[in-house]
Amino acid sequence: MDDRTLHQELACGNPAAFQQLVNSHQSRVINTCYGFVSNKEDAEDIAQEVFLEVYKSIDSFREDAKLSTWIYRICVTKSLDFLRKRKRKKRFGRFKDLFGKTQDRIEQIPAPATANPQKHLEKQERAEILQQAVDSLAENQKIAITLNKYEGFSYQEVAEIMGASVSSVESLLHRAKKNLEKTLYRYYAQQG
Amino acid sequence: MTEKERIRQEVEKTLQCFDGIEKIEPRPFFFTRLKARINSTDAEKKRVKQSGWGFAALRPALLSLLIVLNFVSAIVIFRGNETRSDNRSEYLSAFAEEYSFTQETEDLFSFAN
Fold it and tell me: Which of B18, B19, B40, B45 is the best substitution to test chain A (most A C-beta atoms within 10 A)?
């Protein structure tokens, strides 16, 4: 089904069309959310809210972009809203998310083909350090790098989702990478 | 290897973690849970609509009552002001009579101001 037909079917409330939409996008939506929140359960919850929003707001979709672009825009917005809420909660002393986050990022590193626990552990630690460095980036840079590096969206796709030009996205990614290098350099310099 | 080179190597190795990330799989029955959530949201919307209907019908009546009350209050207040000002004139006349104030006395005072 092409975008226009799918949109029409969704607007009519066709349940099969909605199921098709969810099935084709659920994995990438969940992983995109995961790229921001680093917690499996939270990522799934947010993904459900994304599709719920799509279901409720399909009438307001103007077809000025692809349906998938609209979905991932909602995904980014919901993920960032979640992060802001979590930050506010953290200020009042709830630290369990920190530990949950560490657990999930560790699980995401696949177990090595040959048993080499030392190397495996090292990779887990690096992934956690990288995630913390990404979390310290400015919001726009974080969005660009999460979509491009974690989820493999092309520059064009990232530009469409962010509502920016491709050159802005290139610039954002360049600055993000430089800032990540700086943060990681400072971290490893302190480690000695 | 110098310290700088060591750090740069560590940074590069860490950045390479972007390539090694495996995708997480959605838990089973993702769509089933989503559907249940949608149904629950729709049911809640219906319930609110039904219970809200009675109140919605009352809204124009409440608004009219509020407007009428405002009018009545305004009338009472203005009438009250009039009565007070009538009373005031009477008191002043009685006072003037008591102390034999005439128009000339009044003019004297106003000249002094």
Answer: B18
Cross-chain CB nearest to B22 (options A55, A110, A189)? A110
Q: Which of A42, A119, A126, A129 to mutate to test the interface with B (most CBs of B within 10 A)?
A: A126
pLDDT digits (tens, 9 = 90+) for B36-79: 999 988 887 777 777 665 566 678 888 889 999 999 999 888 88
Contact A97, A43 (CB under 8 A): no
pTM over 0.90: no
**A147 closest CA partner among A32, A44, A68:** A32
> Is B38 part of the contact surface with chain A (CB cutoff 8 Å)?
yes
| Interchain contact A106–B (C-beta under 8 A) | no
For chain A, what is the HEC assignment?
Answer: CCHHHHHHHHHCCCHHHHHHHHHHHHHHHHHHHHHHHCCHHHHHHHHHHHHHHHHHHHHHCCCCCCHHHHHHHHHHHHHHHHHHHHHHHHHCCCCHHHHHHHHHHHHHCCCCCCCCHHHHHHHHHHHHHHHHHHHCCCHHHHHHHHHHHHCCCCHHHHHHHHCCCHHHHHHHHHHHHHHHHHHHHHHHHHHC
| Beta-carbon count within 10 A of B113 CB | 4
pLDDT in tens, A36-87: 998 899 999 999 999 999 999 988 888 788 899 999 999 999 999 999 888 7
For A156, the token pair is 């064009």
